[in-house]
Each structure stands twice: as C-alpha cells, then as structure tokens.
From TrEMBL:
Organism per entry: Gluconobacter frateurii NRIC 0228
Bilayer disposition of the protein: Multi-pass membrane protein
Entry's family note: Belongs to the cytochrome b561 family.
Alphabetical keyword list: Cell membrane, Electron transport, Heme, Iron, Membrane, Metal-binding, Transmembrane, Transmembrane helix, Transport
Domain Cytochrome b561 bacterial/Ni-hydrogenase: 9-186
Cofactor or coenzyme needed: heme b
Pfam families per the UniProt record, alphabetical: Ni_hydr_CYTB (PF01292)
TM region positions: 12-35, 47-69, 90-112, 151-171
Compartments, record wording: Cell membrane
Protein name: Cytochrome B561
Record carries keyword Phosphoprotein: no
Length: 194
C-alpha cells in the first residue's frame, strides 16, 4: 500500500444509515420468507405483514435520505491499489444496490395498494400509511397484484444475492487484501466525521 494512502471514513450519518439499512434488510428477508412460506396462524401472519410493511417503508425513507446524502457528499476515495476494472465493478454494484433499495420497497408498496383485500397499512401500529392511488383505484386489481408479487419476490431474492456479494467483497478487502476498506464503514466515534 503506498505511504500516501490513508483511510478516510464515511461520515457518521452515512455509517449509521448503512447499518440501519443492513439490519432492516436482514429482518425484512427473514420476516418476508416466514410470512409467505412459514405456514403460520392468521393472527401471527397479520402481525408479521404489518411489521414487514412498516420496516419496508422505513427502508424506503432511509433510502431517500441515503440518496440525498450520496448526491451531496463525495464518498471516500477507493485505494490506489484497486484496478480500474475493480473500481468500476464496485461502483456498478453500489448503483444496483441503490436501485434495489428503491425498486423493492416500491413494488411492495404497490402490491399492498393493489391488494384485493384492501388491508390498511399502519406503520408500527401507530402511523396510518396511504396506498398508492394509481394502484388502489384499479378496477381489476388481482392480475396487477399477482405480477407485482412476482417482481417483489424475485427482486428480494436478487437483493439477497447482491448483499451476499457485497459482504464477500468487504471480507476480501479486509482479510485478503488488508486495505482497510471495510474500516471506512465501521463506526469509530472519535474518528468519524458528521
Ligand atoms: C428492501 C425492502 C424489502 C425487502 C428486502 C422485502 C423482502 C420480501 C421477501 C423476501 C418477501 C417474500 C417473497 C416470497 O418468497 O414470495 C416479501 C413479501 C412481501 N412483501 Fe416485502 N420486502 C421489502 C419491502 C416491502 C414493502 C415496503 C412492502 C409494503 C409496504 C412489502 C410488502 C410485502 C408483502 C405484502 C409481501 C407478501 C407478498 C405475498 O403475499 O406473496 N415489502 N418481501
């Protein structure tokens, strides 16, 4: 590693948002799979659906904040030891992750809005959340809901694969390349900028 390279961290806000997203996505995948394939009682399913919708909308709102942060801040530079192809792959991966963090929650929201059951969404049992009018006012909701369910499910499976790659890349940098890339996203309170 050249002597001129020193690890510049992400800001505190970016680091906090990153880990909130990571925990919430893990929870959404587990809850999503359980509620669709778990064979649970109707009461438990209802509760899990509401929790899934609440966390999913939280992720959507956090993605908006994250995107605003990203557009208004320059992220720390990648180390000079990375090949141009690797840097392009890293950037492409991050753009796809950002896109997924919008597309998957939006398809979830759209599928709930086009549901034939019309069950209201109340975030964390406290805040009523509206349906998307374009979908809630459809005359024939069932086929639209079915398509959105498929897109949402396959989008979520693709996200699981993408997150797995993201984690493997971070571990490769930490333990094989030892270039401290992973440390940029870890909170060291005294060392992180706001
Ligand atoms: C990053 C955000 C999200 C992730 C990773 C995610 C993940 C998942 C997963 C893994 C499933 C199970 C899919 C299957 O195997 O069929 C699922 C189902 C579902 N999700 Fe999400 N979800 C997200 C956001 C949302 C949001 C924002 C909503 C609604 C406001 C939502 C509503 C639903 C509903 C209603 C189902 C059940 C669909 C069915 O009955 O087939 N999701 N989600």
């Amino acid at each position: 590693m050249p002597a001129s390279w020193s690890v510049e961290r992400y800001t505190r806000l970016a680091i906090i948002l990153h880990w909130i997203m990571a925990l919430n996505i893990a929870a959404l995948v587990i809850i999503g799979l359980l509620m669709v394939h778990g064979g649970l009682t109707p009461d438990t399913m209802f509760w899990l659906y509401q929790l899934h919708k609440s966390i999913g909308i939280t992720v959507l709102l956090a993605a908006v904040v994250r995107l605003v942060w990203r557009l208004s801040h320059r992220p720390p530079p990648l180390p000079p030891t990375m090949q141009p192809g690797e840097k392009t792959a890293a950037h492409a991966g991050h753009i796809i992750l950002y896109a997924a963090l919008f597309i998957i929650p939006l398809t979830g929201w759209a599928l709930v809005s086009s549901s034939v059951f019309g069950i209201p969404t109340v975030l964390y049992g406290l805040v009523p959340w509206p349906d998307l009018p374009v979908f809630s006012t459809l005359t024939d909701k069932a086929p639209v809901e079915a398509v959105l369910k498929t897109i949402h499910a396959y989008g979520a499976y693709a996200l699981i694969a993408l997150v797995a790659l993201h984690i493997l890349a971070a571990l490769r940098h930490q333990f094989l390349l030892r270039d401290d890339i992973m440390a940029r996203m870890l909170l060291h309170w005294g060392k992180s900028r706001l």
